[in-house]
């Protein structure tokens, strides 16, 4: 007998597997599902093994990890700020990561250093927002949100200045990174491991998160240690966002639309929402990346363009439905 809380996760897991099979099979050279299976069984031609195992599979897994990280981070941010419109980038983490990555690009450094610089920039933005929001007293969700918005605006100004003074030859790569792109993400395992670990850690806290979402005073009255729990949520959401931005740049709307949509369908139980966000966010970004690869083939679009084109009308429709 399948428990009601398990059935949606099974459906989303099957959808994720199907999306990944489609992703590794679709491209300039089409590969049938049977051939994909034969490659995973150690058979298939050399061309098929190269295309799937060395090119498409790492990109697909990177897209899945990035989408899952952003969706879970968005769900945590919405609980922390008690605001359904919060997303992983609302506190300026993507701006800090972008400045770090663009500085590395201007210095002519390689991919690994760019990723490390982006991660360092995201952590710097996290420390800035938390330190400024805390001030001389304690921070509140509204104060944290306002501080994040101001810091994000500051990072945006720095990014605009850097683009204005950058050499013309560096602009295409910088703009692609800013729009979000997984074509250069070839090491998905850190993101997948982090996503799994965070889901395992957070799901047991689901009851506490459910109470915290109703307000800090009610949570404190029911015996929840509100401040340590809020710190934990903030640290985990920041780490998830920093890792996602490091892997694929700034990809919008995944962390905003996916948790919002799942809450309308599945309710507000964080024990179900958080793992569902990991699966649904990963599936959405895999499908978006597949579409980005084939819509104007042989050219490719940044996946951030596809998520924006899909996310804007979807979110407007959800707002209209919940008026």
Automatic annotation (TrEMBL):
<feature type="transmembrane region" description="Helical">
    <location>
        <begin position="88"/>
        <end position="107"/>
    </location>
</feature>
<keyword id="KW-0813">Transport</keyword>
<comment type="similarity">
    <text>Belongs to the binding-protein-dependent transport system permease family. FecCD subfamily.</text>
</comment>
<feature type="transmembrane region" description="Helical">
    <location>
        <begin position="113"/>
        <end position="132"/>
    </location>
</feature>
<protein>
    <submittedName>
        <fullName>Iron complex transport system permease protein</fullName>
    </submittedName>
</protein>
<dbReference type="GO" id="GO:0022857">
    <property type="term" value="F:transmembrane transporter activity"/>
</dbReference>
<dbReference type="InterPro" id="IPR000522">
    <property type="entry name" value="ABC_transptr_permease_BtuC"/>
</dbReference>
<feature type="transmembrane region" description="Helical">
    <location>
        <begin position="231"/>
        <end position="253"/>
    </location>
</feature>
<dbReference type="InterPro" id="IPR037294">
    <property type="entry name" value="ABC_BtuC-like"/>
</dbReference>
<feature type="transmembrane region" description="Helical">
    <location>
        <begin position="60"/>
        <end position="81"/>
    </location>
</feature>
<dbReference type="GO" id="GO:0015889">
    <property type="term" value="P:cobalamin transport"/>
</dbReference>
<feature type="transmembrane region" description="Helical">
    <location>
        <begin position="187"/>
        <end position="210"/>
    </location>
</feature>
<keyword id="KW-1133">Transmembrane helix</keyword>
<feature type="transmembrane region" description="Helical">
    <location>
        <begin position="273"/>
        <end position="296"/>
    </location>
</feature>
<feature type="transmembrane region" description="Helical">
    <location>
        <begin position="144"/>
        <end position="167"/>
    </location>
</feature>
<dbReference type="Pfam" id="PF01032">
    <property type="entry name" value="FecCD"/>
</dbReference>
<dbReference type="GO" id="GO:0005886">
    <property type="term" value="C:plasma membrane"/>
</dbReference>
<keyword id="KW-0472">Membrane</keyword>
<keyword id="KW-1003">Cell membrane</keyword>
<keyword id="KW-0812">Transmembrane</keyword>
<feature type="transmembrane region" description="Helical">
    <location>
        <begin position="303"/>
        <end position="320"/>
    </location>
</feature>
